[in-house]
Amino acid sequence: MRIISGKAGGRRLATPPGRTQDIRPTSDRAREALFNILGPVVNGSRVLDLYAGTGALGLEAFSRGAVDITFVDFHRQPLEIIRKNISLCLPAGDQTVVSVLRYDLRKGLPPALLGGKAIFDLIFLDPPYSQGLSLKTLQYLGNGNLLTPNGIVVAEERSSESLPAQCEMLHLFDQRTYGDTGFWLYSLHHQTDTSVKERQ
Predict the structure, then answer these.
(1) What is the pLDDT of residues 124-147, one digit of tens each?
(2) Please, which residues have CB within 8 angstroms of residue 158's CB and are 6 or more apart in sequence?
(3) What are the residues facing 125 on neighbouring strands?
(4) 3-class DSSP state for residue 178?
(5) Where do the record's region annotations for Disordered lie (predicted)?
């Protein structure tokens, strides 16, 4: 697994040995397709990577110009891999703000992010498939308090699953399928045009 494009493009990422129920990295193909959809939205953005796993989504965003990335996961192995991948991708002296939080997202959102101090342009959520966690986390995010007015939430789930067209203040404006992987893109506004690039 590698960073697809940008200043860390081609950098190989650490992944868990063998199969693990705690980490299921988004494939390079699906990640490349997603970031092609997001386009210039990523540059200069503040990013929240929930159920971060290897950190590949947040680090791809860094490589493409994100300036502030917060990674959240709960289990020891993914947290260790995230920190290792940060060290692999960020050169010494890089000014990007990077945080790693340990929190069980099944219980809600990390208290450190609440209270109006944190707000993000891009929020990725990539929980274990088919456990109802994508919907639960969308409901936690549904009040919009963590999202900028033009921000985007990207939920990744098994493509055969179904996520709602609206979740409180979040409105679905695009949905894409790449093999077993599905992406659902939400914003705080009802979108009649599915082009992310038109939002700039």
Answers:
(1) 999 999 899 999 999 999 988 999
(2) 129, 130, 180, 181, 182
(3) 50, 155
(4) strand
(5) 1-22
The whole-angstrom separation of Cα 127 and Cα 124 is 10
Element (H, E) at 84: helix 76-89
Helix (H, G, I), strand (E, B) or coil at 121: strand
What is each CA distance from 8 to 11, 26, 81, in whole angstroms?
A: 6, 17, 17
3-state secondary structure of 89: helix
Q: How many CB atoms lie within 10 A of CB 14?
A: 16
List pLDDT tens digits, range 89-122: 998 888 899 999 999 999 999 998 987 777 999 9
Q: What are phi and psi of 129, to 5 degrees?
A: -65, 150
Quote the CA–CA distance of 17 and 128 in Å, as a whole number.
Answer: 18
List domains and CATH numbers for the chain: 29-199 (3.40.50.150)
Model confidence pTM above 0.85? yes
- At residue 176, what are phi and psi to the nearest 5 degrees? -130, 150
- Number of neighbouring beta carbons within 10 Å of residue 184: 24
CA-wise closest residue to 56 among 118, 110, 11, 20: 11
**DSSP three-state, residue 124:** strand
Name the 3-class secondary structure at 77: helix
Q: Residues with Cβ < 8 Å from 93, sequence gap 6 or more?
A: none
